Amino acid sequence: MVQQKEDESPPLVYGLATVYSATVISVASFTYLLLCMLLGDGLAPSLSLQALILYILLELHTSYMSSPSQGNYNNPTWPGWEVWRLAGTVQ
What are the Cα distances from residue 90, in Å, to 5, 46, 70, 72? Predict the structure, then answer.
């Protein structure tokens, strides 16, 4: 009979998340530049503002999810309300 080690854990794969995030960032950057060129001078600044607001929203969401008071969804924070209001005003 073959005995298996009890403390045997699956192999760790380092850099796998970096590969996925780098791909997403490069595709998003390419799409953003293509849309800026297609939209021209009139709508490219609004697209830049929308990308900035999306970045701010993701940063706030990440900081909220990594905070010790995670899971208190019934009491939203003031910056969260303001960012959602600002995101709603971008056309």
Answer: 57, 7, 28, 28
Q: Which domain holds residue 47?
A: 16-67+75-89
Residue 8 belongs to some domain of the structure = no
Total domains in the fold of the chain: 1
Structural domain includes residue 58:
yes
> For 2-37, what is each residue's pLDDT tens digit?
555 556 776 667 776 677 778 888 888 899 889 888
**Torsions phi, psi of 2, nearest 5?**
-100, 125
Using CA atoms in the order 76, 51, 28, 71, what is the torsion angle rounded to 10 degrees?
-10
